[in-house]
Amino acid sequence: MNFPSKLIEEAVSEVAKLPGIGKKSALRIVLHMLKRPEKDVQNLATALVAVRTKTQYCKQCHNISDDELCGVCLSTKRDRSILCVVQDSRDVLAIENTGQFNGLYHVLGGIISPLEGISPSDLNIESLLSRLQSNTEVKEIILALSPTMEGDTTSFYLQKKLKPFGVKTSTIARGIPIGGDLEYADEITLGRSIVSRINYD
């Protein structure tokens, strides 16, 4: 790809490093920014730098936060008897957007993956156990991890670690999405849907 300017080439190269953005998309973004008022571009640059330099991780749940404790952990309206364990902050956002969960979270910061060199010691598991030792309010822990081999391995490991605490441990239901056709579902998903069936009230 030939560029009319070295500055544009450098900008395209940097934007193309973002996930899901190729060189052509990066060029469109850079050319779009050239047409925007200078103040808009400065605001974008300032916001991106602030995200990298000023955000931190909640010292209790490890979710992304502006302060030492995130808004969820600080809220007095949350149900402190239920703790939802997730892989990363994107999962917290996804669950929060459902409006169906009102408990607290614990972000592991990944899942166990020997192939990628990620062991239990690389995750926020010890802080989860410490959190349970110092907090007798927690009555249930929901393991909301991806239904993959790595996710299941992590869930199995956590179940063993959590057993001595005597709290109820559950996992999110897995099955056929609403609007989906059975004939297009893979065998594992369909099988789990049948095993995890629910009764009509």
List the SSEs and their pairings.
Blueprint: H1 6-15, H2 23-35, H3 38-54, E1 56-57, E2 64-65, H4 71-74, E3 82-86, H5 89-98, E4 104-107, H6 126-134, E5 140-143, H7 149-162, E6 168-171, H8 187-195
Parallel strand pairs: 3-4, 3-5, 5-6
Antiparallel strand pairs: 1-2
Helix pairs in contact: 1-2
Your description of this structure?
Helix 1 crosses helix 2. The protein has eight helices and six strands; from the N terminus they run αααββαβαβαβαβα. The strands form two sheets. Strands 4-3-5-6 form a four-stranded parallel sheet. The chain has a two-stranded antiparallel ribbon with strand order 1-2. It is globular. The model has no long low-confidence stretch (mean pLDDT 91). With 201 residues, the chain is an alpha/beta fold.
Let me know the average pLDDT.
Answer: 91
Largest sheet: 4 strands, parallel
Helix/strand/pairing class, anyone?
Answer: alpha/beta
Low-pLDDT runs = none
Report the C-alpha radius of gyration, rounded: 22 Å
Tell me the total number of β-strands.
6
Shape: globular
Number of helices: 8
What is the strand arrangement across the widest sheet?
4-3-5-6
Distance between termini?
62 Å
In N-to-C order, the SSE pattern is: HHHEEHEHEHEHEH
Percent helix, as a range, is 40-55%
What percentage of the residues does DSSP assign to strands (E)?
5-15%
Give a quick set of tags describing it:
4-stranded parallel beta sheet, 201 residues, 8 helices, alpha/beta, globular, two-stranded antiparallel sheet
Compact description:
With 201 residues, the protein is of the alpha/beta class. The chain has helices at residues 6-15, 23-35, 38-54, 71-74, 89-98, 126-134, 149-162, 187-195; strands spanning 56-57, 64-65, 82-86, 104-107, 140-143, 168-171. The protein contains 8 helices and 6 strands.
